[in-house]
Structure to design on (467 residues):
């Protein structure tokens, strides 16, 4: 099997190729991408902004304004980092396009032109992942979009569907790079594809080179959560991790044979070691022998790790298997409404007061006869993280926060639920505090519906435009 006809091996660059990731999600550090650009040698900077819930948020934004629907944070990176990107020759790959890759491209082009770089850059745009406009036609053709987890048919909730996006892989990104793109903007794609795409482009890997595709996928998986593999959110001896305040974000040093090193810029905080990297390897993978992506199946049990000096972990020996004939589809749909309120109780008898308040609230809700589908209570400081503690908590707990939430398919009962929370500060147990933030608000519940679609039913489109 050969790659896309327009894909050709890049010439003139030796290995290793240095690929960094400066964003793990929409809302990650705004400084990390700039510090990566300015902290040392890079060939590529990837920026991951999307999660399942993010797509539904972006869909709502686009519904209000057709020019919106992408991660606006990316514009800030381009505005502040344009000079470094252009003059250092760093190529940028991102899924910031979200629900509107073309709109994101237009906005980035405007930023580059305003910065004085008009005529010097090309932007590659990958579209085709948004199948919402074709969803009904696909259903009529017999594509059921069966829920992977429950076995239900999409037709049961079709009127409530808000978005439907295919997870494309690395080859459309590689095609854009081969077309001369300096910045590649995609919609929904596999997270690891942001890093795998540059490797496919640089090394000319074939689409059926399963071991190398698997290795590049695993490399992308390691860095996709940003500083989570350089010491952030790390359980392994976390107190000894140096200089969290200046934590460095990860860099792949990729070789053409599929081996690679995970590292970070010299002089930054954090730590890259085998225990920390292993924690990230186990993040959100399911069966380690069958990590399924659009480009292939990676076998995490074949990974060989070796500490290769300070802040350098070497990966080798990775094996993979043939890709499936399906893409995963991320579908979001409306599932009612929810709200969460909090009441903080102080010593003495903080836990006893919080439990009493919970009971009183539930009794009042019963008396009102509200049609609530569920009510859930947590006692932060006692059981919010790990469930009920063994035995009764000590009576001298300084403070406990009652966090109580409710949901319903209808909005009105949830609004009424919220109105019962604040009054208990004066008509319930004593010592409530923490109400300065005001009333909570009702949020729409966006539920996730994972499904599969044959790869033959959808095609990625790639366009490279000059700015």
């Amino acid at each position: 099997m050969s790659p896309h006809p327009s894909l050709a091996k890049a010439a003139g660059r030796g290995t290793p190729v240095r690929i960094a990731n400066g964003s793990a999600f929409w809302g990650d550090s705004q400084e990390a991408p700039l510090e990566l650009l300015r902290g040392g040698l890079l060939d590529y900077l990837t920026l991951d902004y999307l999660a399942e819930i993010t797509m539904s948020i972006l869909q709502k934004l686009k519904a209000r304004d057709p020019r919106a629907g992408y991660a606006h944070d990316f514009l800030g990176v381009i505005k502040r980092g344009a000079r470094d990107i252009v003059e250092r020759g760093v190529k940028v790959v991102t899924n910031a396009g979200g629900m509107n890759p073309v709109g994101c491209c237009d906005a980035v082009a405007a930023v580059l032109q305003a910065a004085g770089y008009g005529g010097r850059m090309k932007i590659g745009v990958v579209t085709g992942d948004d199948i919402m406009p074709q969803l009904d036609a696909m259903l009529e053709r017999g594509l059921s979009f069966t829920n992977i987890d429950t076995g239900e048919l999409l037709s049961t909730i079709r009127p409530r569907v808000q978005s439907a996006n295919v997870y494309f892989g690395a080859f459309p990104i590689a095609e854009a790079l081969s077309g001369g793109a300096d910045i590649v903007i995609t919609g929904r794609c596999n997270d690891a594809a942001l890093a795998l795409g540059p490797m496919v482009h640089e090394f000319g890997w074939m689409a059926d080179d399963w071991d190398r595709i698997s290795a590049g996928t695993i490399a992308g998986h390691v860095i996709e959560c940003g500083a989570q593999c350089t010491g952030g959110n790390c359980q392994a001896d976390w107190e000894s991790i140096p200089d969290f305040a200046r934590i460095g974000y990860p860099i792949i040093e990729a070789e053409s044979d599929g081996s690679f090193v995970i590292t970070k810029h010299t002089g930054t905080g954090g730590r890259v070691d085998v225990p920390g990297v292993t924690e990230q390897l186990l993040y959100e993978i399911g069966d380690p022998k069958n990590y399924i992506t659009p480009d292939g199946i990676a076998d995490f049990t074949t990974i060989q790790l070796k500490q290769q000096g300070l802040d350098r972990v070497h990966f080798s020996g990775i094996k993979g298997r043939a890709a499936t004939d399906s893409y995963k589809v991320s579908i979001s749909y409306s599932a009612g409404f929810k709200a969460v309120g909090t009441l903080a109780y102080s010593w003495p008898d903080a836990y006893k007061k919080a439990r009493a308040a919970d009971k009183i609230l539930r009794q009042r809700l019963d008396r009102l006869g509200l049609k609530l589908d569920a009510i859930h209570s947590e006692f932060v400081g006692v059981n919010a993280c790990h469930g009920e503690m063994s035995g009764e908590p000590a009576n001298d707990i300084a403070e406990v926060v009652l966090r109580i939430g409710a949901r319903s398919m209808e909005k009105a009962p949830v609004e009424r639920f919220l109105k019962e929370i604040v009054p208990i500060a004066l008509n319930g147990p004593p010592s409530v505090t923490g109400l300065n933030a005001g009333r909570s608000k009702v949020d729409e519940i966006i539920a996730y519906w994972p499904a599969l679609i044959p790869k033959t039913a959808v095609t990625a489109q790639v366009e490279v435009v000059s700015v």
In short: Residues 17-129+167-324 form one domain.
